[in-house]
Amino acid sequence: MPKTPHPDQRYVTALLNNDTALIGEVYKSCARQVRSYICFNNGTEDDAADIFQEALIDIYNQAKYKGLELTCPFNAFLFLVCKRKWFNELKKDLLAR
Fold first, then answer.
1. Contacts of 82 (CB under 8 A, 6+ apart)
2. CB-based contacts of 52, cutoff 8 Å, min separation 6
3. pLDDT tens track for 13-72
4. Which pLDDT score is estimated for 1?
5. Domain assignment of residue 78, yes or no
6. Is residue 80 part of a domain?
7. Cα(58)–Cα(49) distance, rounded to whole angstroms?
8. Is this model's pTM higher than 0.85 or not?
9. Which residues contact 59 (CB under 8 A, 6 or more apart)?
10. Taking CA 35 as the corner, what is the angle to CA 60 and CA 73, rounded to the nearest 5 degrees?
11. Quick one: which H or E segment has residue 20?
């Protein structure tokens, strides 16, 4: 039995349709948490802004090219993507030393 998409799928659709109002809601509801996490884990506010933007692009690409359907809240998914991206940045910096 196929799962029904989470109601927050509307945010994924907003990314696909460049719905600035809903995308603005994403920034208002999620950016602070991502910024706090990255700054607490050896990053800067600029790092956080970059990671946040890259994560939204990743989600857009997953939706456009792979048919992403959320089965969890959007903010939880976005935060997970941001954490993974930040972990990869830290790992890359560590390996470059």
1. 34, 37, 38, 51, 52, 55
2. 27, 30, 31, 34, 35, 82
3. 999 999 999 999 999 999 999 999 999 999 999 999 999 999 999 999 999 999 999 999
4. 57
5. yes
6. yes
7. 14
8. yes
9. 12, 15, 68, 77, 78, 81
10. 45
11. helix 20-40
Structure tokens at 70: 């959320």
pLDDT in tens, 54-70: 999 999 999 999 999 99
Query: Which secondary structure element, helix H or strand E, spans residue 87, and what is its range?
Result: helix 74-96
CATH of the domain at 92: 1.10.1740
Containing domain of residue 28, as a range? Answer: 9-96
For residue 37, the Cα-to-chain-centroid distance in whole angstroms is 13
Tokens for 44?
């800067």
Asked if 72 contacts 95 with a C-beta cutoff of 8 angstroms, the reply is: no
